[in-house]
Amino acid sequence: MKIKKINIPVFKSQSEEADWWASQAGRSFVKQKSIEAVSKGETLRGSPLVQRLNKTASVQIALRLSESDLAEARRIASRKGIGYQTLLKMLLHEGLQREARRL
After folding, report:
1. DSSP 81
2. How many angstroms from the chain centroid is the CA of residue 61?
3. In sequence order, which residues have a C-beta less than 8 Å from that of residue 6 and are 6 or more positions away?
4. Inter-CA distances, 28 with 8, 15, 64, 100, Å
5. pTM given for the model
6. More confident residue, 87 or 53
7. In the predicted model, what is the mean pLDDT of residues 2-8?
8. What is d(CA 95, CA 97) in angstroms, rounded to the nearest whole number?
9. CB atoms within 10 A of CB 74
10. Domain edges within the chain
11. In the chain, count of helices (H) and strands (E)?
12. I want to staple 84 with a disulfide (CB 3.0 to 4.6 A). Which of 26, 40, 77, 101 is the partner?
């Protein structure tokens, strides 16, 4: 049985990309690529957005969050199939870009 190839669409925003990765199509793409990688003996490194965020130099900071906000971030990140720290970095990045445009 031949599996239909799924292509990554062009996204207008990081939010749109995150939503796609959390959708059935995004999860199917990850599953398809994972199966292909295992058959070739390769390892995947995540979405293009995650790769881009991981390539940028970062500085470690301490940030205090309410338990409920952290729990919600973990729940959303789990649903999207990414780490909660990656999700928080994405949200912070989007918020900073939005605020910079408003100034």
Report:
1. T
2. 21
3. 25, 28, 29, 32
4. 11, 19, 35, 35
5. 0.49
6. 87
7. 71
8. 5
9. 15
10. 14-102
11. 5, 0
12. 77
